[in-house]
Design a protein that fits this description.
Four Helix Bundle (Hemerythrin (Met), subunit A); 18 strands; binds adenosine-5'-diphosphate; 24 helices; binds magnesium ion; alpha+beta; 7-stranded mixed β-sheet; about 50% helix; Ubiquitin-like (UB roll)
């Protein structure tokens, strides 16, 4: 009777969902509803202005100095900050603190300790020391290390990152002070994503400053990488979610036939947000504002039940912490609203997947007030600024051209493989879209032909007053590009929705740092030969335009012709994670990552190991989940349905007529046979995978043989779904999950 029971659960879920109303948040009662966002923005973060107010002038200045120099904090300063942090937190009802860090699992980790301690008279008191603030020692042996740390050296350290503000995480019945931290091994190897990102920021900043100095800006102090992450996600009602073992185990549906209506009506994108979803979004944003996360935009995405939230861009390290908090709160708040938030890159076959468009640019920090805060990717007001702009733009192109394989590796995951190259998702081939205007400028720089562009305000002249003028913010849109220039920033669109942007951005930073270094060396050579600096720059731009032709693509990234064209250009087409990850160890990637001090040799190898291992585990979990769903849900329903036909068919035979059910009986029987045999083949393949010794080979085998076999199993399941009566089908259908709310 199991399937009858399950079908009933499915129908119960539908009933439950039909009765749902928007969930009000507690803050309505607390009086927040009358406040402006700016009244409570960041109330749960201990930012620098708040610290300044709480610390003596001397201590505060030493804190700033240590932040700027990157030197270790003196204990006296740490103690003072710890006391200030504790007092601030206690006032807000916080009882515990934790170091909050980002191990190589793609998410965050935390271990809480109470402030509770005893004074010398044995009385209970609240305490947080400078040492506790700066450093903690979680047992690192249960976090991935990729073989870098053996168990007898299980110690790892988390170290406070003072550049990202301390914050309070509220949960039902608890408030915890979270100290954003890096996570490193006993020997100082990075065991996390934050450390890697911070190193790459350093590399980029230092190379960009060198180039700017050569261009004549001696006052430049630092370059800040800016990042704005557009986060896409799906919301599925919990009642359906909990009946889908595949969503629970893998975050994506492993079976499910397409409903007659998918996203073809194009009615969801920017459509009116349903009141239930809006209530959810409002609460997420409310929580994020308290944490100082500047969420700005919310809207429906293209697929049904798909949405997006985007913040105002921030310094990359902070933006990455904030994106982690956003993902965490999306998941947490969703449950209060009886939703499950799916951050997976491809929860539903044939519908759009979810990405995290990473908007990236470089900002100048200079003693010169005219340059301070300017964006190196912003076409400027003056010809000089435009030369600088084109030089930095060209350097990014050069970086992507040389390291497109590494950038592909940075975004590689089992989940993102399903998305890349699918419905309205960027292809797995990395190319850059610049838009007609900038492409035209580069073409003319390369050919040296001076023409009046049809855009009136743009002119390139290579004569005496030979400086290009670039009009602002008139880039067109190309949704099919994995890496697009959008006005004054690049948008790395191929990053997956569930991924931390830390590694993709770290690789991008490193590649650009290397390109800037090469550009500077080449420019200083040319400056020795040329009479003028501008002449040298123009010659270099011409070379950059020529050398980056291969990576520039303005056409349709989804088309078959592009695949052929890209192959012709020699661009790597790395459809699957194992081949993409192999790029991590390619000689030019290795050289880049080591030269720019983003990884040590041991760290690089360990990253590769961790990523391959994760991939293998994910595919194995998916394959085993599929087998289980087939064996324990789908086949039993099919058996039962078929058995139920026997009586009718037999009675008809006795009365010498042919029951129409006999045809269905045979059809179901055939599908059952086929499904059984395909499932067994899948099991055989998994067995074979277990017998392969080398992990990269296991991964390759899974990405080819196991995935395609999973697809054939799915085909049979989907055919059964189309044949079996609705009432006996055990799993919530696409139609229900995506259209009921
Ligand atoms: P679009 O609609 O063109 O994608 P939006 O203005 O909506 O662009 O911005 C998308 C994201 O890009 C937002 O998070 C925004 O803050 C961010 N962004 C805007 N300008 C920059 C910049 N110069 N550098 C980095 N991110 C930026
Ligand atoms: Mg965008």
């Amino acid at each position: 009777m199991s399937s009858i029971h399950l079908a009933t659960s499915r129908q119960q879920a539908v009933q439950e969902i039909n009765a749902r109303i928007p969930v009000k948040m507690k803050s309505d009662q607390e009086g927040y509803s009358t406040l402006k966002i700016s009244d409570f923005f960041g109330v749960h973060t201990l930012d620098m202005p708040k610290l300044k107010a709480k610390l003596s002038k001397d201590i505060y200045q030493r804190l700033i100095a240590s932040n700027e120099s990157g030197k270790k904090l003196e204990l006296e300063v740490a103690n003072a900050v710890a006391t200030a942090a504790k007092e601030w937190a206690i006032e807000k009802g916080v009882t515990h603190f934790c170091h909050w860090f980002q191990p190589m699992t793609g998410s965050t980790a935390e271990k809480h300790d109470a402030f509770l301690s005893f004074d010398d008279k044995g009385r209970p008191v609240e305490k947080l020391t400078g040492a506790q603030l700066i450093q903690s020692e979680p047992d690192a042996s249960s976090f991935p290390s990729g073989g870098m740390r053996t168990t007898f050296e299980a110690r790892g350290y988390t170290a406070w990152d003072p550049t990202s503000p301390i914050f309070i995480m509220e949960s039902t019945n608890t408030k915890t002070l979270c100290i954003p931290s890096a996570f490193i091994s006993y020997h100082g190897d990075a065991l996390d994503e934050k450390t890697v990102l911070m190193r790459s920021n350093e590399a980029l900043s230092s190379e960009a400053c060198e180039l700017l100095k050569l261009l004549g800006d001696q006052d430049v102090k630092r370059i800040q990488v800016s990042l704005g992450t557009e986060q896409e996600y799906f919301l599925i009602d919990r009642a359906f979610y909990s009946l889908r073992p595949d969503l629970v185990m893998c975050g994506r549906t492993l079976t499910g036939t397409q409903p007659p209506r998918g996203q073809q009506m194009e009615d969801h994108y920017f459509g009116t947000i349903s009141s239930r979803v809006l209530a959810f979004m409002g609460e997420v944003e409310f929580e994020l504002y308290k944490l100082g996360v500047p969420v700005k935009t919310r809207h429906n995405e293209v697929a049904p039940h798909q949405f997006e939230t985007a913040p105002i861009f921030e310094e990359a390290n902070r933006a990455i912490d904030h994106n982690q908090l956003t993902m965490e709160l999306l998941r947490k708040v969703a449950r209060k609203h009886h939703f499950e938030c799916l951050l997976h890159e491809k929860p539903f076959a044939l519908l759009n997947g979810s990405g995290k468009h990473c908007n990236w640019s470089m900002q100048v920090n200079s003693k010169n007030p005219e340059l301070d805060g300017s964006n190196l990717l912003d076409p400027g007001q003056t010809p000089q600024q435009n030369l600088r702009f084109l030089l930095f733009l060209g350097s990014v192109l050069k970086a992507v051209q040389k390291h497109s394989g590494l950038l592909r590796a940075g975004i590689a995951s089992c989940a993102n493989d399903h998305r890349l190259g699918g419905n309205e998702a960027p292809p797995a081939i990395i190319s850059v879209f610049l838009g007609e205007l900038l492409s035209g400028i580069l073409d003319r720089l390369e050919s040296g032909v001076s023409t009046q562009d049809r855009h009136e305000n743009v002119m390139i002249e290579l004569g005496v007053s030979n400086l290009p003028r670039v009009a602002k913010d008139n880039t067109d849109r190309n949704r099919t590009s994995p890496f697009a220039f959008t006005g004054n920033k690049f948008e790395f669109r191929a990053v997956g929705s569930s991924a931390s942007p830390a590694i993709p951005i770290a690789f991008l930073n490193a590649a650009v740092a290397e390109a800037l270094q090469e550009v500077r060396i080449s420019l200083s050579e040319k400056m020795k030969q040329h009479k003028t600096r501008d002449g040298a720059i123009l010659e270099l731009l011409k070379e950059l335009a020529r050398d980056t032709r291969g990576i520039r693509f303005e056409g349709n990234g989804y088309s078959e012709e592009w695949k052929k064209e890209a192959a012709h250009r020699g661009l790597p087409a790395l459809a699957k994670t194992p081949e993409a990850l192999a790029q991590l160890l390619a000689p030019h990637s290795r050289k880049l990552l080591l030269d720019m001090k983003v990884f040590s040799e041991a760290e690089l190898q360990s990253r590769f190991n961790v990523r391959i291992e994760r991939y293998i585990k994910q595919v194995m979990i998916e394959a085993e989940s599929l087998i289980e769903i087939v064996s324990t849900s789908i086949l039993p329903s099919a058996y039962e349905f078929r058995a139920g036909l026997v009586g009718t068919i037999e009675s008809a035979k006795k009365m010498s007529y042919l029951a129409p059910e006999e045809k269905v009986f045979k059809e179901v029987g055939d599908l059952i046979e086929a499904l059984l045999s395909r499932k067994e083949q899948l099991q055989t393949l998994l067995g074979r995978a277990h017998s392969i010794k080398s992990e990269p080979e296991v991964a390759h085998f899974l990405s080819r043989d196991v995935f395609s076999q999973m697809e054939t199993v799915r085909e049979q399941c989907d055919q059964l779904e189309r044949l079996l009566p609705d009432a006996v089908w055990p799993l919530p259908k696409y139609r229900e999950m995506l259209f009921l709310s």
